[in-house]
Amino acid sequence: MNVLWVFAHPEQASLSGVLRDEGVRALTEAGHAVRMSDLYAMKWKAVVDRDDFPEETSPRLEVASASRRAYDAGTLSADIRAEHEKLDWADTVVLQFPLWWYGMPAILKGWVDRVFVKGFAYGVTDPSDGRTLRYGEGMLAGKRALVVLTAGSREPAFGPRGINGQLDLALFPLLHGTLWYTGMSVLPPVAIYGADRMSAEALDAAASLVRSKVLSAATDRPLPYRHQNHGDYDGDLVLRPAHAPGETGLAIHYRAGDR
Ligand SMILES: Cc1cc2nc3c(=O)[nH]c(=O)nc-3n(C[C@H](O)[C@H](O)[C@H](O)COP(=O)(O)O)c2cc1C
């Protein structure tokens, strides 16, 4: 595998840092290639602004519309182009972070905002029929994405009836709305629960879990999300009544029988 590991934690000496080192060591010892985007260490700029498009000189151009422009690598800042080069190289992308307020730390959200620009990560159409390629198809199709996170909550609270919601559904905006949207195959997230109070045994188990899940990333079964363009959705992108009849909620976007 060619693994791009995107790491979003301010402290190298954190639990997250220990787990990252374990995962990277396991991968490299097994002969895989790993490149790291350690966002805090890189002092990654987390907000989209005009500096992202240094070649764009029109004073009338709004930043928001600039970020939606068709991809033209020459107009993008060097730090974004460097991440594109790493993503082009990678067949597997690991996003690792501590769960903060149900989501990614802002620096990682900002990596997604700035790196996943139109024409690189989304916004392309199938020339044969004009359909927009997204949700299972698109620019990043063929790559696998694995989320590795630590969370303060204990595991039952992220279970089917847990107060946080089931983890894969709580992470729906990232897993489905971002990674699957861009075409990537999304692996079940790997979570280390109860991360604020860990015994030595629990830490060993967590390291072992991370090592094994990164090593099996090429072969593990991705989450069985439905493709946008394979017939399950109508023209308004609403799931057709024949699928998951009478059901609502985020889990209907898993293929029947695979849930
Ligand atoms: C700003 C902030 C927000 C947090 N939000 C959540 C949360 O929504 N759910 C949760 O289970 N834990 C939450 N936590 C706990 C962290 O997930 C936990 O401290 C971290 O994963 C421990 O790993 P670390 O030692 O590598 O930082 C939060 C912690 C902080 C500092």
TrEMBL record:
Domain of life, per UniProt, equals Bacteria
**Which GO cellular component does the record give, naming just one?**
cytosol
Keyword terms: Oxidoreductase
Q: Which GO terms describe its molecular function?
A: NAD(P)H dehydrogenase (quinone) activity
Which residue numbers delimit the Flavodoxin-like fold domain?
A: 1-208
Q: Which InterPro entries match?
A: Flavodoxin_fold (IPR003680), Flavoprotein-like_sf (IPR029039), NAD(P)H_dehydrogenase_qn (IPR051545)
Q: According to its UniProt record, which protein family does this protein belong to?
A: Belongs to the NAD(P)H dehydrogenase (quinone) family.
Q: What is this protein called?
A: NADPH:quinone reductase
Specify the species: Amycolatopsis albispora
Phylogenetic lineage? Bacteria, Bacillati, Actinomycetota, Actinomycetes, Pseudonocardiales
